[in-house]
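Hello, quick one for you while I still have it in my head. Could you read through the record and tell me how the tokens relate to the sequence? No rush at all, and the record is pasted right below.
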Amino acid sequence: MTEDGYEELANLLSVTKCNGLCFKNYDLNNNKMTGLLKKCETGNMEIQNLDITVNSKTGDGYGELARLLNVGKCNVLRLVDCDLNKKKLHGLLKEFLKGNVKIQTLFISDKSMTEDGYGELANLLHVMKCDLDLTNCDLNRNKLAVLSEECQKGNVKIQKFVILDKLLTEDGYGELAHLLNVAKCNELQLLYCDLNKRKLDGLRQEFVKGNVEIERLVIIDKSMTEDGYGELANLLSVMKCNGLCLVECDLNKNKLTELSEECQIGNVKIQKLVIFDKLMTEDGYVKLANLLYVMKCNELSLRNCDLNKNKLTELSEECQKGNLKIQKLSITDISMTDDGYWALAHLLNVTKCNELQLEDCDLNKKKLDGLWQEFIKENVKIQKLCVIDKSMTDYGYEEMARLLSVTKCQDLLLEDCDLTKNKLEGLRKECVKKNVKIHGLLISDTSMTEDGYVRLTIFWKSKKRTLFQKFASCGTGVKFSKFG
């Protein structure tokens, strides 16, 4: 691709309002990046994601790349198989210092990245102040030691650190713990790392020495052994972790039993537990209730778990036996059955849940009708209802009003629901019929139509009308809360 071709590419991106740009196997250099950059500067173009998969022998293009990131207001930079070294990353660093570039996430997948490259990476992170994702980098103790040493010198902070590396050894996990301590990391994600007792023990031992605290731990690992779950509990006890997320771990009775027994021994407390697992068995839900009780968990999120009546019934029965209380329950499940919603009402009742969040559940009249009728039978009361669902029908909003009436809900949050006049009209009419009173309404919806905002004003006194119409005309995401 010629240099003037890169200039025309910039014109194309500007016209199409493209958010993502990916270069794969392009031998980028200074001249080519300059041609792209010139047009980007004049076109006031924004690139949210920049993905580069290139094996360029020279490092002169990395300086121009930093300028492109600055001009394009890029949020995510992905560097894949770029043979990164100190020289290339230093080229990025010099221009980053000039342009005050801010990146939310830096993703690197590079097995051949040198150790001195990891040292320069620390300097880059100090300037960028971003999250770090290292995927398939063949990490080892030496590479992580260089990174942590330079992070300590530069007082580098990393909010979120993502690792995907099956080959990282036990002593490597010990050095990882040291790095997390130095960087004051808040969130650690371990993805497909073939975790076992030895690896997690290596992490735990260094956590004890460094008094490391991680707010949130995310694990995606089908191959994690049962004794690994026992060691995970020991790790959680020293991390003082507030949130645990288990994704696609093929959870079952044995794994959760091992985890809950060790959590009880270690007196582990977790505020929020997130489960993302379609293959979790029904007897697994029985043990999940025991785990929640042991952890004194306040918030449970079940995401894409293929929920049905049997699974939720098992969970609610065990919760009732243990007199378990849950402050907030979040459900994200497009495939949840209608009878699953009936069982959900019983779960909310026995756990005395205060807040319910339904996200991307394809809500409709039938599902919500079954839910509010069961709410009447169970005498369910919730303080806050949050709905995040673009596909919810107009009739679904009418049923939502009945749900609000039955539960005596005080706060309603509607987020990314593609609100329209018809949807809000259906909600309003039923609220009037049922004499629904809501203390707080919060709306976060960039695609809400202007006639939707006009319709929304009917909920409030006429003096609020001007305020709503003013926001409706600005065409941006608006949040309203506690208008009384």
